[in-house]
Amino acid sequence: MSRISIQKRFFFHIHPLAATGYFAGLITLLLLFNHVSIVLTAFLLIIFLNWFYLGIGKVERQLKFSFLMFLTIVVFNVFLNQGTGPYLWQTSILGLSFKLSYPALLYGSVMGLMLVEMLMAFVLFNSILTTNKLLAVFSPVSPRLALLVVLSINLVNTFNLQFKRLVLYQKTRNVDPFNGSIRKRLSVGMHFLGILLEGALVSGMERARSMDARGFGATKRSHYRIFKWQFSDSFFMTSSLIIFLALIGFKVGSFGWTNSALKFNGSFSVADGWILCLLGLFLLIPVISEKVADLWTN
Amino acid sequence: MDELIGIDHLTFTYPHTNESTLENINLKIFADDFLLIAGDTGSGKTTLLSHLKKELMPNGHRSGYITFQHQDISKFTQLKSAQMVGFVSQNPRNQPVMATVIEELAFSLENIGCPSQEIGRRVAELSNYLGLDQWLHKRVDDLSGGQLQIVNLASVLILRPKVILLDEPTAQLDPLMTQNFMTILSRIHQELGMTIVMTEHNLAVPITMANRMVLISNRQIAVNDTPAVVISQMFQKAQLKRFVPEIPALFLRNYPQAGQLPLSVSSGQRLIHAKNLQFESVNSDLKTAERPKEASTIVSLKNVSFTFDERQSIVDHLSLDIHQGDWLTIVGKNGSGKSTLLSLIGGLRKPQHGRINLAGKTVWKMQTTERIKRLSFLSQEPSLQFGNETVFKELMVQAKQLGITNAESRAQKALENLRLTDLENKNPFDLSGGQQQLLGLAIAMIANPQLLVLDEPTNGLDPNTKHLIGEQLLNYQHRGGTIIMATHDMAFAAAFSGNCGFMFDGRLESILPRRRFFSGNFFFTTALNRLLRDQVPDAILVSDVRAGKGGAK
């Protein structure tokens, strides 16, 4: 059964302002709570959302990409927080002792998962809020600045493509960033960055000339795509806002958050249960809205 | 006719140079003109073109006047300038700023504050006129160079300017896309009455469309007349002779007095029939070296298959043997897989199936240092192979990588051979496209490798520089080198290569000696072969034929 393209989804077609508001709320909420069960639930639901809208292939690639970062955070936390037990494992090498602390492992894992959630949320954000929608949101404030931000985002893709081609063709000069010592690879990487920046400068100047030649900066920019606010946008925003405010209330009451890695544990309270349910609901609003939108299909 | 642009006594000198680039230029461009500006590399064509738009005017010392509809062009507001004069540059990839085609078309109108509904109407109108409606939601990154150049033209045309300036717009396009692009330009000129001013090295198609042509030589306008007159004068100048396209060159060489100089295959055929002109074959001095009978196999491909995305094979079960001393040219349109095949042969990519052996060893398993001593690769975008501060340093670094003992003298020799000596202290990224191409070739040849793999080596080069490259590659071949080249430059392939083959459907089809290849083709062949295939079927170059006995002179 073939997947429905993201462009045919309700969430893709909501007003850019509503989508921006939702993602701003989402990123905020992901940072507000670090209870194990809440973070784990949010992680699983973000994976579900990305699978629903972007497909399993993209989710796998995202998880592969972010696994190393997750591991790094866990390792750092485990090494830096050895003071409090219970300890899962202890060893001593050459006079140096190491204690694998359960709270540190738990805390590191949660922090790592929070980072991965943010990255995956950002990928979904990029897919829903395309550059013309971003322009529509920021143009009323500053049209030129909005366009320059959008151009920068577009250039990231170009930069990536150029980097891949650079890696390919620099092999003819016996320059390979994936072979040799760490120091050599870093040096080659910096060298490549220099080449890319030089190339970007040259093409950037030509592009700037072309923009000038087509009147960029001559007068206040208009905008081609106009997005009209619909009833469905109001429904989406209102429901998101109510849940968001409720969760803020919990945060103000200091629920769902532990400051210290040494005091981190997996204990669960009623308030944590409420946060978990409300956050889950917030994350599922787009999918619920898809189903509601389906009911309105002729 | 209404004067649109007037240039009076324009003299221009770039900063930090003693000699002016343009000297006392006087030129009038009228509404509905299609003006072609020609000249040798460095003659000032682009500098002159840049002066016709306020935002493009280069920094430097300038005297004289440039007017647009009798108003000083430098006094135009940016808004007026954008709506009066459009500009399309040489490199299609350096113009677009937006992610999709529709956004790129809307970009220009958004800049001038056009209301949203008006933008929608104009985009709809233009995309239907140019047939872009199927591409509207495509990403700009996914378009080919030719498609992109059409989008660039559209994004300028949507402003409805009075004149469009184009700076070698087809330099990086294959023949098919060049033809498409020029056809659109012709439509715009004829159906909309738009004034076109264009610089170009590849004159074969533009001279059939332009009503006026200007030749810039020694910093001045040497000739300002119809294309036929200017081309005839170019033919008399040694340094410009190679710029003259095949068809007029054929008649200027063999039947200079026959009548109105034909500029296209069809006008050539008309003249031949009208005056009963005869041509006969000349025993051409075959420049390509004969392959020694006992030549060994340098490169062997066995059942090679490669795909990027597991949906479509770019290279599909391809087998090929290249012998020492061969010069194989692979032709085919953009996207046919030529570059991918070359990158496989060059050991830069590994095929999913099959083997590629270079002198008996699997090419991607070779140590890089050993591989670059045996095989040199020149990519389509040579700047991706640069990485040092100066031209000379690029060659020295490569020579040291290769373990060459007399690195400095080899580097100097390479610079001399490719006429880069004056540029040895320049930053490679500051060089023009053609100069970068020459530097890339110098880096490739400094190794004196067994095999040269060249991807579009004549991209964006003027005819004289192409000839220089051709001669250098022939010398290399005569010394026992082997060349595999991908190109869509038919004239270059016809003049220099040994064998040619088509890249099609993931395979190399019908590899034949160049003469048989081109004379056997109907579409992918030289203009001369298309013109004279009835009289001299094997002729592919102007030098292959001469006036026949009994024909009118």
TrEMBL record, chain A:
The chain crosses the membrane at residues 12-32, 38-56, 63-80, 100-125, 145-163, 186-205, 226-248, 268-288. Keywords: Membrane, Transmembrane, Transmembrane helix. It is a multi-pass membrane protein. The keyword Ribonucleoprotein does not apply. Its main location: membrane. InterPro entries: ABC/ECF_trnsptr_transmembrane. It is found in: Membrane. The keyword Membrane applies. GO terms for cellular component: plasma membrane. This is Cobalt transport protein. It comes from Lentilactobacillus hilgardii (strain ATCC 8290 / DSM 20176 / CCUG 30140 / JCM 1155 / KCTC 3500 / NBRC 15886 / NCIMB 8040 / NRRL B-1843 / 9).
From TrEMBL, chain B:
InterPro entries: AAA+_ATPase (IPR003593), ABC_transporter-like_ATP-bd (IPR003439), ABC_transporter-like_CS (IPR017871), ABC_transpr_CbiO/EcfA_su (IPR015856), ECF_ABC_transporter_ATP-bd (IPR050095), P-loop_NTPase (IPR027417). SUPFAM superfamilies: P-loop containing nucleoside triphosphate hydrolases. Gene3D superfamilies: P-loop containing nucleotide triphosphate hydrolases. GO terms for molecular function: ATP binding; ATP hydrolysis activity; ATPase-coupled transmembrane transporter activity. PROSITE patterns: ABC_TRANSPORTER_1, ABC_TRANSPORTER_2. Pfam families: ABC_tran. PANTHER family: HEAVY METAL TRANSPORTER. Belongs to the ABC transporter superfamily. This is ABC transporter, ATP-binding protein. It comes from Lentilactobacillus hilgardii (strain ATCC 8290 / DSM 20176 / CCUG 30140 / JCM 1155 / KCTC 3500 / NBRC 15886 / NCIMB 8040 / NRRL B-1843 / 9).
